Amino acid sequence: MKPVLYDFFRSTAAWRVRIAFNLKGVAYDRHGVWIRGEEHKSATYRAANPQGLVPALGVGETILPQSIAIIDWLDETYPTPPLLPADPLDRALVRSVALLVACDIHPLNNRRVLEYLKGELGLDEAAVKAWERTWVAEGFRGIEAQCAGGQGPFLFGATPTMADICLVPQVGNAARAGVDVNNYPTLARAHAAMTALPEVQAAHPDRQPDAAKA
After folding, report:
1. Pairing relation of β-strands 62-65 and 56-59?
2. Closest C-alpha to 167, from 145, 205, 193, 198
3. 153 Cβ contact list (under 8 Å, min separation 6)
4. What CA–CA distance (Å, rounded) separates 26 from 93?
5. DSSP secondary-structure letter at 9?
6. Which GO terms of the molecular function aspect are on file (predicted)?
7. Burial of 185 (0-12, 13-18, 19+ CB in 10 A)
8. What is the pTM of this model?
9. Rounded to a whole number, what is the distance in angstroms from the first to the last CA of the chain?
């Protein structure tokens, strides 16, 4: 039985998972969750995933939330091609960049945080964009410093890793916020290498079935 991905085309975290599945060549069934219609808050969806977020992955009777956990499960279950290096220290370094994106940058510019800034705190569009740019740029500077000098073309060498998978959607968010990835040469190189891959192209939000509803 194929795993079931609870997905929303524009979700940054779900985008990561689609890239990982495509790079692994692992088939899955897709269950669209229409975030713009608040479907993720419904009793039906929360019964499946109490966190009320996307993505989530159904594996048999188990629902696995959180994109990094899903990618870890995928890499351990389908080890070829690997998304993490074999050496424990190298694995930790790759994870450190992936988590910098997933835990430090992305949470500060995702939909629910930006809506809170606008609605509950009353910030105008210019202030919200300044918030986004600040934290994206801060995170990108950290990744650039950590990965600069590598041989490439990806962040950690000749093959894509979890770090590159997390980078691609975050560059999409950065562009929306007005942060140009070309200001970070190592990130720009890795992003270009990733987006040249058919597997990554197929995971783009515009290529998903629910993009037509937007």
Report:
1. antiparallel
2. 193
3. 189, 190, 192, 193
4. 25
5. T
6. glutathione transferase activity; maleylacetoacetate isomerase activity
7. exposed
8. 0.94
9. 31
Q: Which two tokens stand for residue 204?
A: 């783009």
- Give the pLDDT of the chain (214 residues) as one tens digit per residue: 899 999 999 999 999 999 999 999 999 999 988 888 887 878 888 888 888 889 999 999 999 999 999 999 999 999 999 999 999 999 999 999 999 999 999 999 888 898 899 999 999 999 999 999 999 999 999 999 999 988 889 999 999 999 999 999 999 999 988 999 999 999 999 999 999 999 999 999 999 999 887 6
Phi and psi of 65, rounded to 5°? Answer: -90, 175
**What structural domains and CATH numbers belong to the chain?**
4-80+205-213 (3.40.30.10), 88-199 (1.20.1050.10)
